[in-house]
Amino acid sequence: MPEKILIAEDEPATRFIFATILKDKGYDVVTCENGHECVELIKNEKFDTIILDIRMPDMDGFEVLKVLKSNPETNEIPVIIISGNAEPQNIKRAFDEGATEFIAKPVNLEELLIRVSNVLKIKRTNDELKKLRSEFTYLLIQDLKNTISVIKASFELALRNRFHELSDDQRLILEIAETAINKHIKLLNEYLELSRLEFNIDKISKEQIELDKIIAEILEKFKPTFNLTFHPPDDASLFQIYADKKKITRVVELILEAISNAGGKDVEILLTADNSNCLIKIVDKSQTINAEETSYLFDKYKQAVLQKLPRYNALGLTISKIIVEAHGGKVWAEPGEGTTFLIQIPKIKT
Prior knowledge:
The chain has helices spanning 12-24, 35-44, 61-70, 88-96, 109-159, 168-198, 211-222, 245-261, 291-294, 300-306, 315-326, and strands spanning 4-8, 28-32, 49-53, 79-83, 101-104, 207-210, 227-231, 240-243, 266-273, 277-284, 330-336, 338-346. By secondary structure, it is α/β, with parallel strands linked by helices. It folds into 3 domains: 4-107, Response regulator (Rossmann fold); 128-198; 207-346, Histidine kinase-like ATPase, C-terminal domain (Heat Shock Protein 90). A 5-stranded parallel beta sheet has the order 2-1-3-4-5, sandwiched between helices. A hairpin with a 1-residue loop joins β11 and β12. The longest helix is centred in the middle third of the chain and has 51 residues, at 109-159.
């Protein structure tokens, strides 16, 4: 299957020439004439690389680049910038914004073909490495889970008096060990889920859903865990989103699990909306984080670099961040009277 290239260029003659020589080399080529059209095409089609002009009407190449790099589903697509402005500050800005290559106009067509070939070669190598790393991670975690499951089964047999009568001290030691094993299995499952999301193995499958119904279903599951308060919206139609129902449900559940693990008991959930977004507010009334903690709360890698652990210490928060950002939204936390977790997701445009 030929590799697919998107050309975003407002000059018809240049766009035609680029498309023609690339098609002659066997590439599948799609063209567009402005930034807005480029962004819409990226939402609906998968491209192996993008040739992007800087100067375009309405939405320039730098703005398109920001949109690409802010979305986990598109931030790894290599982008070749084309510009008539080859000043050092312009080139620097292009690479700072995430461009892979920069070609000055007028473009040498042989150079363009060489750059495209090199960029695609690097992408193929990176994709293969990502696949191998993902497969290795999956097999490693599965092996660890299998080993731990055998140990867990042995403890369960002992706790059920399958060997001989246990003393109270022996039973307590086994119960502590079993609890630790269960936590370890949960951590392995979360790491496996995280790796599948990071390597884009678990795809987002979107449908029209109503947030208030999702929250109501989650509340039933967590009633035994929390003293929960939910304020249903007066107009449920304001809270319709186009999203993966299972994954958005997972986000809310992961945040509630993090609150529970941190010792939270009193939780309030609210829904608000504006013209563009729906906002889920989950308030842990039991405890308050500090402003510094919010900067690394959802990022396990930043926690490792800073060598700091947040109060809500769980891989689930990193997983929730990846899922929400894959929907074009964002998730964060704010200190106040308690800790407020906020999940912002774009609304369905009417």
